[in-house]
Design goal:
Rna Polymerase Sigma Factor, Chain: A, about 190 residues, globular, Arc Repressor Mutant, subunit A, single chain, about 70% helix, mainly alpha
Length: about 190
């Protein structure tokens, strides 16, 4: 049995097929959560953002114009929904308590392997420093960094998702890396995204 493309799923969603909604949800729920969590810094807000993003996509499926891929369009919805929640709450994002497996998604900064208790404590401390450094990035730089480093979107996909030019993506990613490099100097090498 061939897996349906994102466009085929979106077509099914626009026709009200619950099986298409279910499959799209299963395909993107973890990716959407990971992006929302990195943007918002806590589970409740990330879950709200993901839930809202799926509701928005399901409601707007008929209006998809195909100017980008379905995947890119959905990431744009996730990012915008996350940023809306963040703005509404007007609070400082804290990424303390990031799970170790999520930290590994930032480009394998930390090599888990078999480790001694002191090594595990050091890795946990390093994960917290990385998460804290990401939290200190501006909203626009963090969005680009998360989509590049965590979600591994191409420059074109990021540009489409955020409604900016590829040059702006490159510039924001450059400055995000520089800021992270400065924040993490002496702790870890800067991400090479």
């Amino acid at each position: 049995m061939n897996e349906l493309t994102d466009q085929e799923l979106l077509d099914g969603i626009s026709r009200g097929r619950q099986s298409a909604q279910r499959e799209f949800f299963v395909r993107y729920r973890q990716k959407a959560y990971r992006a929302a969590y990195r943007l918002l810094g806590n589970e409740p807000d990330a879950l709200d953002a993901v839930s809202d993003a799926f509701v928005k996509l399901f409601g707007a499926a008929r209006g998809f114009r195909g100017e980008s891929s379905v995947r890119t369009w959905f990431y744009r919805i996730v990012v915008n929904t996350s940023l809306d929640i963040r703005r509404r709450k007007k609070r400082t994002v804290s990424l303390e308590g990031v799970r170790d497996e999520e930290s590994a998604a930032l480009g394998d900064f930390v090599n888990a392997g078999a480790e001694t208790p002191p090594a595990a404590a050091e890795r946990s401390e390093l994960s917290g420093k990385i998460a804290g450094a990401i939290a200190q990035l501006s909203e626009k730089h963090r969005s680009v960094f998360v989509l590049a480093a965590v979600e591994e979107l191409s420059y074109r996909e990021i540009a489409d998702a955020l409604g900016i030019s590829i040059g702006t993506v490159m510039s924001r990613l450059f400055y995000a890396r520089k800021r992270l490099q400065k924040s993490l100097a002496g702790h870890v090498e800067a991400p090479n995204v």
